Amino acid sequence: MVGVEALCRWDDLERGSIPPGVFIPLAEDSGLIQSLGRWVLRESTQQLKAWHEAGHTELLMAVNLSARQFQHGAVLTQVEEALVASGINPARLELELTESVLLHDGEAVMSTLRQLKALGVKLSIDDFGTGYSSFAYLRRFKFYKIKIDQSFVRDLIDDPEDAAIVRGIISLAISLGLAVLAEGVETDAIAQRLKTLKCTYAQGYHFARPLRPEVLAAKFLSEAD
Ligand code: MN
To answer: Which of 45, 53, 131, 197 could hold 82 in an S-S bridge, CB 3.0 to 4.6 Å?
Structure first.
């Protein structure tokens, strides 16, 4: 295991668990995504700091960013704040953005990405292949990793088209010198196939379902020195 991805959940006393697919768009529409995003960055880096201090110094934490956080470059301040407050090694923080971020206001976004990179953090493209993919930005900015969307990975074994797309994305990433990760890996058969396709990383229910930090630590981090 090389890292974890921070996932946000909302447990409401009356309505139960509200899925992120419901509350994230609401937060984006209402503008609350700015304070939610800032809070997520703070919480995740504090958690990572605790795990680093417990001896798991190589562990990476991936945090999802919303396109809205890029407006006025707000995300830059939020990431700087989180890095200063936690004191973690910036190279252990991975920021995930979707292709939609790259669609809007090209120059402003590129400038923010360059400034983020200058802080020493890693930048990855999330859900790759589902947005309005433009290969131009792969040429303009050196990302750390491409995360292949789970919709291509799920039927990798049975669907030749999905297999062709996954193989293509992996070879694109390798040729560009980027790390590549398959999302939504649910079976050992898929994990094995990805290995033969030379996919660097994988994540999904096959490895672990979303866990609370203390459960994750007990299950996956107890062996470390
Ligand atoms: Mn993600």
So the answer is: 45
Q: How far apart are CA 53 and CA 181, in angstroms?
A: 27
Q: Tell me the two tokens of residue 43.
A: 């919480």
Spell out the alpha helix ranges (H) of 54-185: 74-86, 99-103, 106-118, 136-140, 150-153, 160-176
Task: Identify which of 112, 115, 60 has the alpha carbon closest to the alpha carbon of residue 89.
Answer: 60
pLDDT digits (tens, 9 = 90+) for 137-176: 898 899 999 999 999 999 999 999 999 999 999 999 999 9
Cβ proximity of 173 and 180 under 8 Å: yes
Number of H helices, E strands in the chain: 10, 9
CA of 77 to the centre of ligand 1 (A): 21
CA of 15 to the centre of ligand 1 (A): 25
Ligand 1 centroid from CA 147, angstroms: 8
Q: How far does the centroid of ligand 1 lie from the alpha carbon of residue 53, in Å?
A: 25
Q: How far is the CA of 98 from the centre of ligand 1 (A)?
A: 8
